[in-house]
Each structure stands twice: as C-alpha cells, then as structure tokens.
Design a protein that fits this description.
Blueprint: H1 3-6, E1 9-10, H2 16-25, H3 31-41, H4 56-65, E2 66-67, E3 72-78, E4 85-90, E5 96-104, E6 107-111, E7 115-117, E8 132-135, H5 138-152, E9 158-161, H6 171-181, E10 194-198, H7 202-211, E11 216-220, H8 226-232, H9 241-255, E12 259-265, H10 273-283, E13 287-288, E14 291-292, E15 294-300, H11 314-326, E16 331-333, H12 347-355
Parallel strand pairs: 1-2, 6-9, 9-10, 10-11, 11-12, 12-15, 15-16
Antiparallel strand pairs: 3-4, 4-5, 5-6, 7-8, 13-14
Helix pairs in contact: 2-3, 5-6, 7-9, 10-11
Length: 357
C-alpha cells in the first residue's frame, strides 16, 4: 500500500449519514452518497476509479482526502480436513490481524478480529501474548468480511466477533460495525446472525443490552467460580461472577436473545464433575417461561506453545456435557474447525509475525 494511502482516512469508516454530510460539504447532491456507499459496501470495490457512475471530478475530490483500499491478504491457509480458511490481513499502517471462514451446511460463517492483539490476558489465548497494539476501526472490521467474500467468491451468512481482541474494549467501533454490516444499503446481514463474545466487561454488557442491537451475546465463562476463573482470566480479578451473571440476565431481559456460555475445557483445571455441577448451579436460574434461556458451548482448549495447558480426552468432555444435559441445560461440544492450520485464536497471526520479523 502506498505511503499516501497510509495517511488518509478510510472512507469505509463512514456511515451513510456521515457520507451524505461529506458529499453536501463538497457541493454534491445527497443521492451520490448512496451510490458511493453501494460501491463500497455491496460491490466491495477498493478503488475510486471503479465507481463508474460517479463523475471523475468527484472521485478525484474524494481521493484527495480518503482511501477506499481494503487490507492486503498476506496469507491464506486452507484446512484439508473441512475447508476452513484462515486469513492474515495487513492493515494500512502495517499491523496484521487474522480472520477465519468456516463453512457449514447452514451457511458460511466468518470470525473476525476487533483489535490488533488484546490486553485481556486470558491464559489460553495466543492473541493476548504480545498485548494490545490498537483498536480496529469499523471499516477495518467490515473489510475482513468484504475481503473474505471477494477472495472466496461466496456470500457470508453469519458473523462472529470472536477473533483477536475484546469487542467491549472497542465498543464504539464494534457497534458501528454492527450497524453498518446490517445496513440495508450494505451487505444487509441480519443482526440475528451476528454473535459477539466478551470476557465479561460488565459495563459493556449492560450498555449493549440498553442499546438493544438484537445480536447474540456469548460470555467467555470458562469456569464456574471466581477462584478457577482468575487462574484462566485476569479480567476475573476486576469483575466477579456475582457482577457478571446479573448483567447477563439483564441482557436477556432487555433483548429476549438467548445467551451462550463459552467454556474452554482445560485438563486438570476446570474439567471435573464437581465443576460441572457448580456450572449447573451457576446458570440454572436463567429461566423464562419455565425454559432455560442459555446454551453452553464446550470448547476443547487449543494448546499453544507458550502455555502448558492441555485438552482433556474426548470422554472426559462428554462426561462434563452429560452432567449439564442431565440438569436440563443445552450443552454442545464445539466442532473443531481448521485444527490442522494453527487452531488457537491468535496463533496464526503470531506465527506469521515471527516468520516475518
């Protein structure tokens, strides 16, 4: 990417009303904004020269201030097991991030990053080993989806914001992304098909509930009590489960959206029967109309070289699952996607950075 483009604001960061305001300032009619927005968010162009129904003088005006460039795809790894694709993108400032395309019978899901790195410090996650470099803008989050659609030639149906970063730590950009990806003038992806994962930032959960975007919330729980959770997640030193669980219930009450609890199962840390029973006691009160309004997603931990965590054998995880199911809690074991291509979150990015240091 040219040095000139590095210094410019990416026009893809602008929501439609903001783009309309820019066009009016340039003395252009308001309807031009929708034309340009369509080129950026439907046709997924990455250069103003492609906007054939926009006058050349207007394109030149925009190019003086903005860039329409998409991030560069540096690497794509394709799983031989299930066709999962993992992408390394280079942003305008040279930072790299990763995203994943997963193919299911019900459609294509993309997992995107919300930050470059992460400062949450979860012990089982490679994303956080080098800390947080910066937040991603809404346009940079959108661009991950757009580049994957362009490269794969396939429509994205579902989006999970579970890659590198904590979305609630980048709240304004993350929610702007939700508004734009679901905009009827853009890709128009249903908000019911968008899931955001948080490690438990209480203020963010409550704010998201109040603003009611109608998306699915997933809590990275990983332990049924504060003591075990603190071993796995430093954020547990700031927010106790006695603060987090009421916020989760508040989210359901305000939105009516069933909540998912993510539980990475780590051998000898959080995988025994006693902890399964504790988990039952923790979440069984989340009932509405006599039905539990939550789901537990058991995740066999992906070992990373820098940590000494190991995954339990499949039988142990199934035993944990059966305890939950016997108590009437819906629990599934996450299907491992792309396990032959740097499985842990942030691992591919870290490997790429090392190789290209």
């Amino acid at each position: 990417m040219s040095e000139e483009n590095r210094m410019k604001e990416n026009i893809r960061d602008l929501e439609l009303p903001e783009l309309e305001a820019v066009l009016l300032e340039l003395g252009e009619p308001k309807f031009r904004a929708k034309q340009i927005y369509s080129w950026l968010h439907v046709k997924l162009c990455d250069d103003f020269s492609e906007m054939t129904n926009v006058s050349k003088p207007l394109r030149e005006k925009l190019q003086k201030t903005y860039t329409a460039a998409l991030p560069e795809i540096c690497e794509v790894l394709t799983s031989k097991l299930d066709g999962t694709k993992k992408y390394i993108f280079k942003m305008q400032d040279g930072h790299v991030i990763e995203a994943v395309l997963m193919k299911y019978e019900h459609g294509n899901s993309v997992c995107i990053s919300s930050q470059v790195g992460c400062r949450m410090g979860c012990r089982f996650c490679a994303s956080t080993l080098d800390g947080l470099a910066r937040n991603l803008t809404s346009g940079e989050m959108l661009s991950q989806v757009y580049e994957i659609q362009r490269e794969s030639g396939e429509r994205v149906d579902n989006i999970v914001i579970m890659g590198s970063g904590e979305p609630m730590d980048n709240y304004e950009n993350f929610t702007r992304f939700v508004r734009m990806i679901s905009d009827e003038n853009g890709l128009n992806i249903s908000r019911r098909n968008i899931t955001v994962s948080t490690c438990g930032i209480v203020e963010g959960i409550r704010r998201l509930a109040d603003e009611n975007y109608g998306i699915t919330l997933a809590l990275s729980l990983h332990a049924p009590n504060d003591e075990t959770r603190r071993k796995l997640m430093p954020i547990a030193n700031k927010y106790s489960l006695s603060e987090i669980m009421p916020a989760i219930e508040y989210y359901f009450e305000k939105t009516g959206r069933r909540v998912t609890f993510e539980y990475s199962v780590v051998q000898g840390v959080n995988d025994n029967r006693q902890e399964a029973l504790e988990l039952v006691r923790l979440i069984r009160g989340m009932k509405h109309g006599g039905k539990l309004q939550c789901h537990v997603n058991l995740i066999p931990v992906n070992p990373i070289k820098e940590r000494d965590w190991k995954r339990p054998d499949r039988t142990k995880i199934e035993e944990f699952q059966h305890v939950l199911q016997h108590a009437g809690i819906t629990a599934t074991i996450r299907r491992e996607m792309g396990s032959d291509i740097s499985g842990a979150c942030g691992q591919l990015r870290r490997d790429y950075l090392k190789e290209n240091a």
